[in-house]
Amino acid sequence: METGEAKWIDPRHNEEADEEAFLTFSLPIYASGERDTERTDTSKIVGVMSVDLSVNLLSDIVQKNKPTPNSYTVLLGQNGTYIIHPDHDKLLKQTVYDLPKNEEDDSRLEAAKAVMSGKTGFLPFTLNGKKWQVFYKPCHLYEVPNRSMKHLNWSLGVVYPDEDIFGDYSHMLVHVLRS
Description:
Elements: E1 7-12, E2 22-30, E3 45-54, H1 55-64, E4 72-76, E5 82-84, H2 105-115, E6 121-127, E7 130-138, E8 155-161, H3 162-178
């Protein structure tokens, strides 16, 4: 109510209460006929409508609609926290920077930085001895009247093992070379 803006609120997790985390979208409700997009006067706001969306439920829905059997999707908050990830233990409790240190750190960390960069692209990386590709882009809001267009600072990445992308090609190449 203080800002008079419709916006997504980054999810929070209350570990002490062991509560499920929710994403929240809030929309101010103005007195009938009082909304003027040129004014910043919030005194005509009579309430706020909000919708909560379970982070676990959203993550499950996204993971069930993956492009290949071994791929997965991540949605990262502005500080690298996992908002969507197939491993629910990571949701809002870990960041992309929390993986244990090992020889693969450089490629994994570079991929995490690329996803968080606010740019669109793809990058290979190695995790647990396996080669992966991450395709990423920042989340942008569609323009809707009376809605804040502030940047969410969320980034989306779709992660594929190299085998899913290059598997058939590699098998065909070996077959052709043997012939």
